[in-house]
Design a protein that fits this description.
By secondary structure, the chain is an alpha/beta fold. Among the domains are: about 160 residues, 2-enoyl-CoA Hydratase, Chain A, domain 1, CATH 3.90.226.10; about 210 residues, 2-enoyl-CoA Hydratase, Chain A, domain 1 (Alpha-Beta Complex), CATH 3.90.226.10. It contains 22 helices and 21 strands.
Length: about 575
């Protein structure tokens, strides 16, 4: 009894102390933020906008109340997150503000998709039309960051730095051997020769069809990158490919200048003198301060709405797309009489076929009232294409990953695992199909037939949605469907998208369709204020930080497992998950 009371009191005390600590941390952060100033920043003469190419690039910026505090608490560096929306807005501000004379791109380790980086690059190309300068410096450049920095008037690198230029590769992980050891068989029903999302669970390598499509879209993305670097650096595409084959990262740094990939080899403390040749007595304005510079956009009654749809659809990820909430947002915008046209920003690999259909329905009703233009980000594939296909026009970057019109279902059979563990089951049922689709045994032929019919109907509906939206026959869509992935550049050729470009291009089209002369942009869903975010995310932020600190890179595997747990019903997802390197 004494031991019981001892442990009980210790537990109560532990919970009490943890609660007190959490409250102190909560109010400490809240107080610090409340005490900070959010005043508008004024740009002084001879300013240079400093854009740090570090951290993770996301489609839309979001305040993280806990990033700095928890990073410090767990002895980690703060995980910097940069919003593409903020970067594009700040480049535009820098172009329009006469006191800003140039842009300094600092660093070369920004993690982002190729389509998003191209959108920044396009904005920088447009910025240079103002006659202002761009200088880029990094100790080390990742390949995709060099692609971005190559637009600069001066590309600088540390004399002992490294520049990654080696071509692209896509690496896929396969789990079949692991599942075999565990005694788990993944039972698959799908439509689409190229629909390869199930391959990691049933194969140990890529299928021929999958390898074919990966080769095609990798080649398209690389060709696009080489073309832009070639134009900016005045190096032939042939030479860039020759240099890539040399694996420039491990070549002497002097070769980078010899090959005209960079302009100068300098140390970080020498960059100021180079910027000083463009503008004397300059002052650097950091990205966070540039966010606080007043936008010149005037208040207008008429608005163009921008609705963001980012992440997996109903994948159980708090950062993904919740179809129910997104439908509410779409309906809200449809009813808003001040919104005369809508740009739907899609950056999604797909997900739930059911959720995709609900979003499609809401967008179709919105389109009946006002022009609807889709702007595709890094991915708008499978379910991401499903929710895009009905738009009046679709705009994509040449290196956007899209298409993947196909559907699959995935049901595990853990009979082998049960045998290993010694578990047995017995069933009582009232009807023949009472225990249908059990994870404890194989499909019966009848169950497989029923599942395949269910998936086939979903595929036919998907194809019909695309055919109606793109004004094509179902046979025309099926000829380019089969779950195949396309780049935006190739999708344009086959009629899956209408134009190459980014958000700016999509906005121009929406404004033109609505015949607006004056307008302002309004984003949806409305960003949550700091304290709302603080209250909502406190528990989840603590949990995520602890898991990341303990698991490191293995956190990605845990997250993948969590996503698999959330899969419900048939899926319209990209044919695989991969990392382009």
């Amino acid at each position: 009894m004494k031991q019981f009371l001892k442990f009980t009191l210790a537990t109560i005390l532990g919970v009490f102390l943890a609660s007190i600590l959490s409250m102190l941390l909560f109010f400490g952060i809240a107080g610090a933020i409340a005490g900070s100033s959010e005043e508008v920043v004024e740009i002084t003469e001879n300013s240079v906008y400093q854009l740090d190419l570090e951290g993770t690039l996301v489609d839309r910026s979001e305040e993280n109340p806990f990033a700095g505090a928890f990073a410090e608490a767990f002895g980690q560096d703060e995980q910097k997150v940069i919003g593409l929306d903020d970067v594009l807005a700040n480049i535009r501000k820098a172009k329009e503000n006469e006191n800003v004379k140039g842009i300094y791109l600092k660093g070369g380790m920004l993690m982002g998709g190729y389509a998003s980086l191209k959108e920044i690059r396009d904005a920088l190309v447009d910025f240079k039309k103002s006659g202002k300068f761009i200088v880029a410096y990094a100790d080390n450049y990742m390949q995709k960051n060099y692609y971005l920095a190559s637009v600069a008037d001066k590309v600088l690198i540390n004399p002992e730095g490294m520049l990654e230029l080696k071509g692209l590769s896509a690496e896929l992980m396969f789990f079949k051997n692991t599942l075999d050891k565990l005694g788990i068989e993944m039972q698959v029903v799908k439509v689409g020769t190229y629909k390869s999302a199930v391959e990691p669970y049933i194969n140990t390598k890529m299928s021929d069809a999958n390898r074919e499509q990966v080769n095609v879209f990798l080649g398209s993305i690389w060709k696009n990158m080489v073309s832009h670097i070639s134009k900016s650096r005045k190096i032939t595409p042939e030479n860039i490919n020759l240099y890539a084959d040399e694996m420039m990262m491990f070549q002497p740094t002097a070769k980078l200048k010899q090959y005209a990939l960079v302009d100068s080899l300098v140390y970080a403390d020498e960059v100021d003198s180079i910027i000083g040749k463009f503008v004397k007595d300059f002052k650097l304005v950091e990205h966070a301060d540039m966010n606080k510079v007043a936008d010149n956009e005037k208040f207008e009654k008429n608005k163009v709405g921008v609705i963001y749809a980012v992440g997996a659809i109903d994948g159980g990820d708090s950062e993904g797309i919740n179809s129910e909430k997104l439908v509410e947002t779409i309906n809200e915008v449809a009813k808003d009489s001040s919104v005369k046209a809508v740009v739907f920003r899609v950056s999604s690999p797909g997900g739930s076929a059911y959720g995709s259909e609900q979003i499609w329905r809401a967008l179709t009703q919105l389109k009946a009232k006002k022009p609807l233009v889709v702007s595709m980000g890094d991915y708008a594939a499978s379910g991401g294409y499903y929710i895009s296909c009905m738009a009046d026009q679709i705009v994509a970057q040449p290196n956007t990953i899209t298409g993947s019109i196909g559907i699959f279902g995935l049901i595990p059979n853990i009979e082998g695992l049960n045998n290993k563990l010694g578990f047995t089951y017995d069933v009582v049922k009232t009807n023949k199909m009472g225990d249908a689709i059990s994870v404890n045994r194989k499909f019966t032929p009848e169950e497989r037939y029923l599942m395949q019919g269910y998936v086939n109907r979903g595929y036919e509906l998907f194809v019909k949605r695309c055919a109606d939206g793109r004004k094509k026959s179902t046979d025309q869509i099926k000829a380019i469907a089969e779950g195949r992935v396309w780049t935006g550049e190739d999708a344009l050729k086959i009629g899956l998208v209408d134009k190459i470009g980014g958000m700016d291009e999509a906005l121009k089209i929406a404004v033109s369709k609505a015949k607006l002369k004056a307008y302002m942009v309004k984003e949806f869903p409305v960003k949550e204020d700091f304290f709302t975010k603080l209250m909502k995310d406190f528990d989840s932020s603590v949990e995520t930080r602890i898991l990341k600190s303990q698991l490191g890179d293995d956190y990605k595997l845990l997250r993948k497992a969590q996503e698999l747990k959330q899969i419900n019903g048939i899926q319209a997802r990209m044919p695989f998950e991969f990392e382009i390197k």
